[in-house]
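To: structure desk
From: M.T.
Subject: fold request, one chain
Message: Could you run this one when you get a chance? Sequence is below, nothing fancy, just the single chain.
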Amino acid sequence: MYYHLKLLLTSSKKSLIFLIIIFFITSFKAYCYDGPLFDAMAQIDETVNMKQAIKDVRNASISKIALFARSRNSLGENEKKLIKLQKKNKNLIILGAPKYFLHKKDISKKFTNHTLANVDKYNYAFIGEILFTHADKNHGRQHASGETYLDPSGEGHLNFLKSISRKKIPVMTHWEFYNWDRDFPKFSKIFNQFPEVTFIIPHMGFGSINQIDTILSSHSNVYMTISKSLKKNTSVSKEISLKIGEGMVENKVLKPDWKNLLVKYQNRLMFATDAHKKHSWKKYNKKVRHARKRVLRFLPNDVAEKIAYKNAEKIYGIKLK
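Reply: Done. Structure tokens follow.
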């Protein structure tokens, strides 16, 4: 009797474990996307070994990378270095106009003229990040206000957009959503004012699902990258941390509510690494691997393809094949 009871319990336990396994498999179905990748956003400067960085990109099996220079000290800094690098890697690098760190209150005429001239000269496929809002990190440069801030409604920015709209190339707009009430009305107005301009918001603004949904449902000319969104941004102050969204991934699995968002906006989201500083480039392969294993593999293949490379093909006008 004892033997039969023990056998029954053992059998029941195995059945329960089997059912639990089946539940998790069906709840978190993995499609195992292993197709092409187009890194829709990365940046580089003189602190990075550029040749090694490109070697790392190739080793990560990236088909194309949208790359722009970081000009931290002067207008056009590192621009020519990247152009030389691109000439040696034409089958890989898609060039964007440099990111300038020294804007003061508004976009200057000097920046606008320099950028417009070089869009034509170097055939830039996009405008690299314009830094509008950026919360101070726990390490690095600090501001009394706790942020880097450039008012998007400035006259200089509006004039820049009027000029760049004729070029028909996308503009990367670095806007973090931690001060939603201040910033959303201004950006929303700009997105409406320039429907012919395609705007790309990196990292989905570190926003919540509701914030991302609000923007993408209201503005068809806005796209976003999923870079730095797998986990919550913990490099900011506690105050800012409470105002930004949670990460997409928990225990190495894409959260169901985030999966629903990615599926809903599958035509408007793009894979990107945002490799930028030296320490970030050293983690390039890891960034790519995590995007594959923790995000793309949990999406239906047709959805994963769009986010992995097809949307970037459309935005930048570049075909992988």
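Reply (cont.): The mean pLDDT is 89. Let me know if you need anything else for the meeting.
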